Amino acid sequence: MLQSCEAQDKQTKKTTSTFEIQKTEQEWKKILSPEAFYVLRQQGTERAFTGKYYKTKDKGVYHCAGCDNPLFSSEHKYDSGTGWPSFWQPIQPQSIGKRIDYSHGMVRNEVYCAKCGGHLGHVFDDGPKPTGLRYCINSVSLVLKKVQ
Ligand SMILES: [Zn+2]
């Protein structure tokens, strides 16, 4: 499931060639739900207050729904009131990547999975201490693995 597919990537000339996990659009469609494909691979956003994790307080680690990369810990999650799961830092700085997103007439900092390039959400600077950051993440991009 996590194997790369070099032959296909050469054909498609995707800009995702720097990511460790490489899949074609068709391969992603096979393993992701339509909602997860829309968010992770097409930079979509789930509607506020509709995702499965925005209220979750269970302890555990949130992994990438596309490639299982550990991304966020419940220790850094807080209730931002926005209707999306919110964290003030990733589990490790290198777990995620950021790039400027100019879509929808706004300038935002997009957050993506460093391993597969899957879109996760955006980061804003109105979060709580100590970082002052708010990682606003789509539930559908995440899979919570609970710990006791
Ligand atoms: Zn990923």
Q: How is the secondary structure organized here?
A:
Elements: H1 6-12, H2 25-31, H3 34-42, E1 60-64, E2 70-73, E3 77-78, E4 86-87, E5 96-101, E6 108-113, E7 119-124, E8 134-137, E9 142-146
Antiparallel strand pairs: 1-2, 1-9, 3-4, 4-8, 5-6, 6-7, 7-8
Structural class: alpha+beta
Task: Give helix and strand order, one letter per element, not per position.
Answer: HHHEEEEEEEEE
Rough outline:
globular
Rg measurement, Å = 15 Å
CATH class value:
Mainly Beta
Question: What is the H level of CATH, i.e. the homologous superfamily?
Answer: Peptide methionine sulfoxide reductase
Strand segment count: 9
Mean pLDDT: 91
Strand portion, in percent?
Answer: 25-35%
Strand order of the largest sheet: 3-4-8-7-6-5
What would you say the CATH architecture is? Beta Complex
What is the name of the CATH topology? Metal Binding Protein, Guanine Nucleotide Exchange Factor, Chain A
Helix amount, in percent? 10-25%
* Bound ligand species: zinc ion
| N→C terminal distance | 28 Å
Keywords:
three-stranded antiparallel sheet; globular; alpha+beta
How would you describe this protein?
The protein has a single domain (20-146), classed as Metal Binding Protein, Guanine Nucleotide Exchange Factor, Chain A (Beta Complex). The chain has a six-stranded antiparallel sheet. A three-stranded antiparallel sheet has the order 2-1-9, with no helix packed on it. It is of the alpha+beta class and 148 residues long. It contains three helices and nine strands; from the N terminus they run H-H-H-E-E-E-E-E-E-E-E-E. The chain starts with 5 loop residues before the first helix and ends with a strand. The structure holds zinc ion (ZN). Zinc ion (ZN) binds next to loops.
